[in-house]
Amino acid sequence: MAVEHASERLVELLSRDDALQDQWVDAVAATLGGRISRAELERELTDLYQALTQALGKGGLDWRGEDYSEVRALLVEMSRTRARHGFTPTETAVSVFACKDVLAPTTDSTAEDITAYLQLTRLLDALGLFTIETYARAREEIISAQAEQLLELSTPVVKLWEGVVAVPLVGTLDSARTQVVMEKLLQSLVDSESEHAIIDITGVPAVDTEVAQHLLKTVVAARLMGAECTISGIRPQIAQTLVALGVQFGDIVTKATLADALRHVLHRSGAQQPAAPSTAGGDR
Amino acid sequence: MSDRVPILRIGQVLLVSIQIDLEDQTVLDLQDDLAERIVATGAGGVVIDITALEIVDSFVGRMLANTAAISRMLDAETVVVGMRPAVAITLVELGLSLGGVRTALTLDKGLALLERDRTARTARP
Q1: Region of residue B56 (left: phi > 0; alpha: psi -120 to 50; beta: else)
Q2: Which stretches make up the STAS domain (chain A) (predicted)?
Q3: Which of A149, B44, B82, B103 could pair covalently with B51 via S-S, beta carbons 3.0-4.6 A apart?
């Protein structure tokens, strides 16, 4: 079979000369512009080179086969590291494609060698695509992990006073986030037995009808549980937008600033106010 | 014969602690029992504790509102206490805001609320 023959010939070509490996490392190092140390690159590519030669010898040209599992594992590791260090897809894939150049046929190559080279090109193309796919997957994993972290970080529920919790909202509100805010706020009301909650929307750049609807729902749900919600930090433009949209907050207390809201809440809950800090702010 | 929810009396307050999943018949029985007990005891307040309630449908939601209305007609203020966040969210999504029902986070706070109400009422001429 011609294919088997080609792979045997390739193994021969690849193991003939140690200089080939160095040429490969040189070619890759040139494209990466010194962002990976040469020693590291050499180690990476030597492993890959050996694995590839071995796989060619054993498993022919079928890169999906069992014999290529080590090559694939090495490629996965490489593209993950590249993705994490912020290399571009081109810079990642070039590590594989550069192997073609070092074996490029010259005018004195035999027809057999050229056939073998063409087979290798096909194989390396497949491996290159595999690298890019892994790279993209690694990037997506990073992005989704970050989005999740952001969701967790962006909704802290802080205790302002005995029986008063606040949620300072920062950034754009969408349904998913508002849902998280709602659940966290209600849960913290139960956990801390707080009767008052302040939702501060100073950091929210835009409020549309949907967001307003979510805010209203949160307030109503808190009421059902026996807690009062105050909304603070509505900026002038947002107030204008809300009125233009026809949103009405009804009997929900709204205050301009978080400080006003806290003062209001403390005034309302008067009797439950702890005595200790009253020397500083006793004339409220 | 379905289970009946016990109605306990503490001073001037009737305490209904719902510990089981509510079936429609249980809910109706409870409404009857409660109305009778309010009249029999002359209670000034009703506390419905739903801390153990994990699932609420629109029927139970409406029942809470109805019970509050009935009690008020019999001169007893109703406070629903211990609603879980998930239950509150469900009720809001169902569009039930339980207008006219007073709520408190815990049984303790609910009783304190009724107490405050009563002193305020007796203070008025």
Answers
A1: beta
A2: 154-265
A3: B82
